[in-house]
Amino acid sequence: MILFFGMPRLQAGVPFTLDSTLWQDSLFHYKEPAPTPKKSFVRAAGEVFGLNIGLWAFDRYVLKGHYAYISLKTIGQNFKHGFEWDNDHLNTNMFAHPYNGSLYFNAGRSNGFNFWQSELFAIGGSAMWELFMEREYPSTNDIIATPVGGAALGEVFYRTSDRVLDDRSSGAERVGREVAAFVLSPMRGITRVITGKAWQKSPVSGREFGRPPLNLELSLGTRILLYHDDRRITRAGASARLHMEYGDPFTDSKIPYEYFSCLAELNMMKSQPLLSRVEIIGRLWSKELVDTRRCDLSVGLFQHFDFFDSDTISNYSPNALEPCVVPYKLGTPASVGGGALFRYQDHRSRMLASLHLNGVILGGILSDYYRYYHRNYNWASGFSIKFGLKGAFLHDRLSFAINNQFYKFYTRNANGSNIDWSATPGGKPVNVNGDESIGTFSHWEGQLTYRLIKSLSLTARFDLYKRSTYYMGDLKYEYGTTYNWFVDSKQQSFQFLLTYTL
Questions:
Q1: What is the pLDDT of residues 33-78, one digit of tens each?
Q2: Please, are residues 477 and 425 in contact by the beta-carbon 8 Å criterion?
Q3: What contacts 139, CB < 8 A, 6 or more positions away?
Q4: The model's pTM
Q5: Nearest one of 209, 111, 203, 199 to 160, comparing CA atoms
Q6: How far apart are CA 21 and CA 345, in angstroms?
Q7: Distance CA 107, CA 150 (A)
Q8: How many helices (H) and strands (E) does the chain have?
Q9: Are 288 and 297 in contact (CB under 8 A)?
Q10: 3-state helix, strand, coil in the chain (%, to 5)
Q11: CA quadruple 414, 420, 421, 426: dihedral positive or negative?
Q12: Which end of the chain offers a freer environment for a tag, N or C, measured as fewer CB atoms within 10 Å?
């Protein structure tokens, strides 16, 4: 269960954040003549190459990681062996690698290439790293998650940095804008320094996308977690939430990410990860089917990036196979599907509904039994369904939202059910997706908000996370052999947050 002090904002794309600016029939959308960046393949490719060399040098000479001691022999072995599934942490594979892919992506983006063309630089940068820059065998999951997830993160960072930049500014303001843009999109910052644009003053802002609508919310407060197994376990700590919505959701578009929503949640809580949730819904294409004074209906194609992470909430071991209790872990760095957004408004109330049906090309979900190196999750593919309903009354003073996200993942690998896992800790890495299983994960959210003043509101939220996994075949371990069975996990969450809206 989650309780918030937050702004009553009704939002179309991301579940559960309210954004009243999107209810307006007409939005102020100032768009000055956009500059046309000159394409430079050499500079973009050079930045990708230089980034990989720099990362390798840091790993080799500062971290002294074993994987960074490369040679012509290790490169040859990589090509000879081919790709396999790796065993890194979920946050490494599902967030850190896509973030690295966003740097490759923005090397192309900042040098004049469009969204689809920049994806080729992300693929090329990832392939270079996997095949040449590590002595570990190239990773099947990385060559998918890095460029595809990198495009989602990269375009969000690139467009956000575009709103920060202003070539008309000078002095301390100019320095602040350039530094902020560099933090958001490092490759864009480097490109601006190389080309001299970082200090060149202009009579126009130089923004590539003008000034599309942008809503930014920052929430700070506390969070309470409840976990249910044989006992009830409670954890409490500080929490932060950042939400951004960019563009107009109800318009025809063929340009990727002219509308997107992005949500990030952070924990400052014992035993829990700092980054607990990241969700991006980026519109790739859309068509408005209904456009009247009271109703709007838009359908489109959307890219989704989902990341949910929790960690040990108890050291209690319910059975010999489970050394600790982790409620859930899930990531979908490569997911795309169709969506529909509907809006109704009159002089008394406003309602907004969204539905997304997605195919998950590559995902991962927590496993109760797979344990090797840093990995405790199964690689999988499947589908997800997202539904949201929001409403506002009393001139937007009172609002509500309900939402459900449902994921179903299939892990299929003939080798996965025949491995003696008791030998795994001291054995060799295994190239498997994980346990042969069907995993489901659902996230229910409920929210009631009362606006206190223009930029501040009090919100009560309820979150319920539920994971169920059906394991197939037989699983061998040191205490015996187990056959087809279910494992369930459930966690509730409360939050109290104070939200400020920019």
A1: 566 678 999 999 999 999 999 999 999 999 999 999 999 999 999 9
A2: no
A3: 83, 84, 85, 86, 130
A4: 0.89
A5: 209
A6: 13
A7: 12
A8: 8, 14
A9: yes
A10: 25, 40, 30
A11: negative
A12: C
